[in-house]
Design a protein that fits this description.
Immunoglobulin-like, mainly beta, binds copper (II) ion, 1 helix, 5-stranded antiparallel β-sheet, about 200 residues
């Protein structure tokens, strides 16, 4: 009888242990990294002389080599938007800035227009930190690893207005936050057309 009770208790403990294990999230999906839906992914090319532009463009092959890969994705959950940018084939151990811009990429770096803003700054260019900040825009600054790869992620408390966010631009420096320079990040080195 004693043996039976002990065996039963052991079986209950074992079952409880198994149930606890199976309800745990797999270690490959930390809660801080929500899954994003792919929006655009491409290897960058030089701008076309005329006609349709490639989806990913490098304007500076010394700092964003031809064939470097840019991919972006986004997700929306309870009014919050997460945007992710993954890069590879860039310079190793290098700081870059990045943001979501309003227009698709074009032959010229300026073609992607200003940063997408949730609350639009009535003044243009927007360099006022009350509007040009990481809560009102999507900032995806990153520093590459020794292989020239990086992942950046931003989460904001709003959703894109349809049709108004159309590119991710990679800049030459991390983004400034000081008055009069807020939101600026140096030259536009590359651009990925992405319809959010
Ligand atoms: Cu930008």
């Amino acid at each position: 009888m004693r043996t039976t009770v002990a065996t039963l208790a052991g079986a209950v403990l074992l079952a409880g242990g198994l149930a606890a294990c199976s309800s745990e999230a797999p270690p490959s999906a930390p809660p801080s990294a929500p899954a994003v839906t792919p929006v655009a992914e491409t290897d960058v090319a030089a701008p076309a002389a005329s006609g349709d532009q490639p989806k990913g463009i490098t304007y500076d092959v010394a700092r964003i080599p031809l064939g470097a890969k840019l991919s972006t994705g986004s997700s929306v959950a309870s009014g919050q938007t997460t945007v992710e940018l993954e890069v590879s084939g860039l310079l190793p151990n290098t700081k870059y800035g990045s943001h979501v811009h309003t227009k698709p990429c074009g032959a010229k770096p300026a073609d992607s227009g200003p940063h997408y803003q949730n609350t639009k700054d009535p003044v243009s260019p927007s360099v006022d930190p009350r509007f040009a900040n990481a809560e009102n825009e999507i900032w995806l600054d990153f520093t590459t690893d020794a292989q020239g790869a990086a992942t950046a992620r931003a989460t904001v408390k709003w959703e894109f207005r349809k049709g108004e966010a159309n590119a991710v631009v990679v800049h030459a420096a991390h983004t400034s936050t000081e008055h009069g320079k807020a939101g600026t990040a140096g030259d536009r080195l590359a651009c990925l057309t992405a319809t959010f």
